[in-house]
Amino acid sequence: MKKAMTGAAMVVQALKDQGVEVVFGYPGGAVLPIYDEIFQQNEIRHVLVRHEQAAVHAAEGYARSTGKVGVCLVTSGPGATNAVTGLTDALMDSIPIVVLTGQVPTFAIGTDAFQEADTVGITRPCTKHNWLVKDTDELSATLHQAFHVALSGRPGPVLVDIPKDVQFADGKYTPKQKVNTSHYQPRQNGDPDTIADLAEAMARAERPVFYTGGGVINSGPRASALLRELAELTGFPVTSTLMGLGAYPASGKQWLGMLGMHGLYEANLAMHGCDLMINIGARFDDRITGRIQSFSPNSVKAHIDIDPSSINKVVRVDMPIIGDVTHVLEQLIAVWKDRGLKPNHEGLAKWWKKIDEWRKVDCLKFDQKGSVIKPQYALKRLEELTKGHDRYITTEVGQHQMWAAQYLNFEDPNRWMTSGGLGTMGYGFPASVGVQMAHPDALVINVAGEASWLMNMQELGTAMQFRLPVKQFILNNERLGMVRQWQELLHGERYSHSWSESLPDFVKLAEAFGAKGIQCSDPADLDDAIMEMINHDGPVVFDCLVEKHENCFPMIPSGEPHNKMLLGQASTKDAIGKKGAVMV
Amino acid sequence: MSPLKIKKGTSRHSAYDLRDPHSDVIESHTLAVVVDNEAGVLARVIGLFSGRGYNIDSLTVAEIDHTGHRSRITIVTRGTPAVIEQIKAQLGRIVPVHEVHDLTVEGPSVERELALFKVAGTGDKRVEALRLADIFRANVVDSTLGSFVFEITGTPEKIDAFAELMRPLGLAEVARTGVAALGRGIVEG
């Protein structure tokens, strides 16, 4: 039954009907009626962030670690514009979030009113869809539609802009079940003929590889289970993008490690040399392909993706399969079993022999000597000391992010939250807040660089207020490490503005917020310090002083193919040509 | 030569629609996009083209179903076959988009554009303008002693040709609607 209520009450009712438990937000003039409703109920928890960008990243962390929709509530004008980076981040990484923004009253729209911004106009290119609701009677249906769009098909961020007079006015509430979502129903099952072709090709393949991505995670835990089953059935090697880590367990014997610009030697050479590439929920991002013309030149390529626009966008594929990963893998496994297909054991044995030779290169080896902590060593110890825990990892963006992807092992999906597509510095800390809200008893660690971390360090206040024991593991090299690395390789070692001057004392900074600060600079003290961090019941800022000039390897120089990897410092001289230098 | 042995640039006119997807030839395509007529929908479509660096040669839009609030956007765009495919896929992703038709490849279609031409002149030039307008089946919709406004309907090429002829005869102003297009015959299904 439809019943009358105010727009503001409808917002809270719609969130409850959608099963929302947590909202990340920041109040302001244009959302006061909604905040008033939030004040008068106890079902939905509101987490007060310290900046609207952080609200969106926290919602992303919440969504990625649970598979549910993350929800934000911010005010008009600056509240909305501060959310833009988070929205774009969520769009690039296909994270389902709903952002509710206040707006000036409908009669003031277009008058340059106080805190007015054209929010739907500004966020149109950085949302999957957005709505400006001008009539309270349409508000609840729009909100339910928003959740549907955020989660359906390829997930993504949506935004609902709600003018203040619409929040005050009475209207009819339409329950979730009554909302017509029939038009937007992306296809889930893949084309059976192409799937059958792929199964036959898999049985013939001599040098196959599964190239998996964030789509496997987004499709839900069942997709990861099916991927593991398919890997088991076929014995094919598995590699993954940054976004897909955890879909196949790092301890699995067919695991090659991450691929791409800073991916593992064996993973990239397997991609380069394969005869059948099975892309499952990845999108041939430029961090993966390197030079397109030289990308895996001799392979037949299959691509499973729920978004038709991902097919043939960058790399032309031979077997496009549009559908949800879970559904398509179910279909593929069914065909494989029904037809009694068997992998090409002879070919595979040779392929694995080749891969084992590449593995022997041991591309992640490093030399921890002397009295300075190598960042790789810090992560190796972090992995060793936390691996048994119920652990979630978020990261900021830069060298530390790549090292975390290389040296930390993920056994399950939804355990790894990182800004992949947009590469947003400042993502990790608020994301860790969102993850910890969803998993109060888990060990949530944000692996950070000092420069990224400072971009949203105000969230220490949020962590303290809501008693979120997030661990901020900062690899402090007093540099924008990745920028510095590129300047070394590309710009004649002219380190233009890539050092962190006037850094705070991180221990004192933590203490100023009432949190715990730990500093560690000696490899001999590292284990104890990490244990102290883990065992502290509360937020910790861990200032790990590391080697300042360490570069991140392996590295495929920009503009080069997979088989032109740099494995260490010795190989970097003139590694990047002029053509590569213009690429990012 | 392309893998399909099609001479470059001929694919669009082939009776058998033998398009080579790997071709780097720039083709012109007419797309019909049926959308919910809701606020901002045109901005979404146009924003997609500008944001991703696609071309718009012409664009027309109007509500075609007043009860169902559906609009039809007709876009003439240019690009390689791969880019055209990508444009269609990207359009299909927009939530209020219901249908995307590529009239250029879906079979024969008719394209029409309406234009208004103001031609100012006296004497022989004025007579010649009126005579040519008659040949092009353009109607006079406004007349003064020193000017005509012609209304002409036809393919963009025909309108271009008419504009060329009017230019030396005192062409003062032009307004064009952009292309509206429909597939020929009865729609299957």
Describe how the helices and strands are arranged:
The complex is a heterodimer of chains A (584) and B (189).
Chain A: E1 3-6, H1 7-17, E2 22-25, H2 32-39, E3 45-48, H3 52-66, E4 70-74, H4 78-82, H5 84-93, E5 97-103, H6 119-123, E6 129-132, H7 136-151, E7 157-163, H8 164-168, E8 170-173, H9 192-204, E9 208-212, H10 214-218, H11 221-234, E10 238-240, E11 255-258, H12 265-273, E12 276-280, H13 286-289, E13 300-305, E14 319-322, H14 325-338, H15 345-360, H16 375-386, E15 391-395, H17 399-407, E16 416-417, H18 428-438, E17 443-449, H19 450-455, H20 460-465, E18 471-476, H21 481-490, H22 506-512, E19 516-520, H23 526-535, E20 540-545, H24 578-581
Parallel strand pairs in A: 2-3, 2-4, 4-5, 5-7, 6-7, 9-10, 9-12, 10-11, 12-13, 13-14, 15-16, 15-17, 17-18, 18-20, 19-20
Antiparallel strand pairs in A: 1-8
Helix pairs in contact in A: 1-2, 1-7, 3-5, 3-18, 9-14, 11-14, 12-15, 16-17, 16-23
Chain B: E1 27-36, H1 41-51, E2 58-65, E3 70-79, H2 81-93, E4 97-102, E5 109-120, H3 124-135, E6 139-143, E7 147-154, H4 156-166, E8 171-183
Antiparallel strand pairs in B: 1-3, 1-4, 2-3, 5-7, 5-8, 6-7
